[in-house]
Amino acid sequence: MLDMLDSQDSPPPISTLNVYKSNAERQALSDALARYGSNMSVAARMLGISRPTFYRLLHKHRLR
User: Fold this and answer.
1) Per-residue pLDDT at 35 exceeds 70
2) pLDDT tens by residue, 15-29
3) Sign (positive or negative) of CA dihedral 57, 60, 63, 64
């Protein structure tokens, strides 16, 4: 009986942990840019990462 359920009755598939991490990283970068966009050094410092790492992550997520 359980195998006869519609696909609408099943919960949506979950993403992998890497997808969740990537989304969180992208969101943190976006938030830092929105708040400190004119000062990349401060944005990186507030995230607890170096400026070169900040720029690498911006490139990785295609945010700048």
Assistant:
1) yes
2) 999 999 999 999 999
3) positive
Return the axis-axis angle of helices 17-36 and 51-60, rounded to nearest 10°.
Answer: 120
d(CA 31, CA 56): 16
5 in any annotated domain: no
Say what the pLDDT of residue 62 is: 96
Q: What is the mean pLDDT of residues 10-39?
A: 93
Structural domain contains residue 39: yes
Q: Residue 16, by phi and psi: left (phi above 0), alpha (psi -120 to 50) or beta?
A: beta
Q: How far apart are CA 64 and CA 59, in angstroms?
A: 6
